[in-house]
Amino acid sequence: MKKELIQKLHRSFEDCAHRNENGVEFWLARELQGLLGYTQWRNFETVIDKARIACEKAGQAVSDHFADASKMIDLPKGAQRLVDDMALTRYACYLIAQNGDPRKDAIAFAMTYFAVQTRKQELIETRIAEWERLQAREKLTLSQKELSGVLYERGIDGQGFGRILSKGDAALFGGLSTQNMKSRLAVPDGRPLADFLPTITIKAKDFANEITNTQIKQQDLHDETSITQGHVQNNRDVRKLLTDRNIVPENLPAAEDAKKLQRRLKSEERKLPQQASRLPGKGGGKKKPGKSDGAASQNTAKAGDGDTP
Predict the structure, then answer these.
(1) Which of 86, 179, 256, 273 is the most buried (most CB within 10 A)?
(2) Is the entire prediction scored with pTM above 0.85?
């Protein structure tokens, strides 16, 4: 996610934060609806219901994190109407984001923004980068499984699959084999090279896999030789795309072990319910000092909106 987008989303989420009389931070559901890109309240209510169930399953009192409130919404011709709303703690907002579509930038941002117990944008940026690396690693796993399946359908066994991947790696890493790169990055024995690659290299390998998968199907390739030639060329092309921009894959430093990173983030997520602030009463509260009511009202639900994007 680009830094400019993170900055924009960070401002938007900060502008909609409230505190009640006890100093507990919360967001209003009608405002969060707009922040997350939902245009119809009934669609957003479905996501809230899923989050409430997740909250209960986590052993938390739903009323501690989801409190009834009310809000004025704009209607056509300048009219207004009082509607039901809901005050949501940071933990409630996190659960709502978890039940959204992470392919949408606002929801992907929200998953991290509400997960970290800090308001510092720099730490949020770091967490988003870590999350994106894990997403890229998972996607690479899927593209390799797809390639393995496509090859198996064409009579190429696991050893043939390994040879094709290895020659692709050599093309991507300027002649260095998979084992050469493992030694270069000090990858422990028995661990995949991809678990220690930086995000951009993981995405490069995945992109080459996707091209190969498409070519095999479109050109109806069946023999290992022609498939290998295509996969090698695809990796060379991806390498050129990087080196033309002064990014040399084999010279990039090793990244944190993806498995260790995944365990760390999971551990932090498990601590969220215990760390979460709770709403002592039903809804209400006052705007944080320095936040204008106008900034929040821009995210108010409008009558006649279309379906969820």
Answers:
(1) 86
(2) no
**Which residues, 6+ apart, have CB-to-CB distance to 74 below 8 Å?**
80, 297, 300, 302, 303
CA distance 125 to 135: 15
Contact 238, 207 (CB under 8 A): yes
What the block records as the tokens of 115 is 């997960």
Query: What pLDDT does 283 receive?
Result: 40
> Of all helices (H) and strands (E), which one includes residue 69?
strand 66-74
pLDDT of residue 118: 60
pLDDT in tens, 38-82: 989 889 999 999 999 999 998 899 999 999 887 777 788 888 888
With beta carbons less than 8 A apart as the criterion, state whether 228 and 221 touch: no
- The secondary structure of 221-284 as a DSSP string is --SHHHHHHHHHHHHHHHHHHHHTTT--GGGSPPPPPHHHHHHHHHHHHHHHHHH-----SSS-
| 277 residue type, one letter | S
Q: Which residues of the chain have pLDDT under 70?
A: 117-119, 281-309
What backbone torsions phi and psi does residue 118 show, to the nearest 5 degrees?
-155, 155
**CA distance from start to end of the chain:** 19
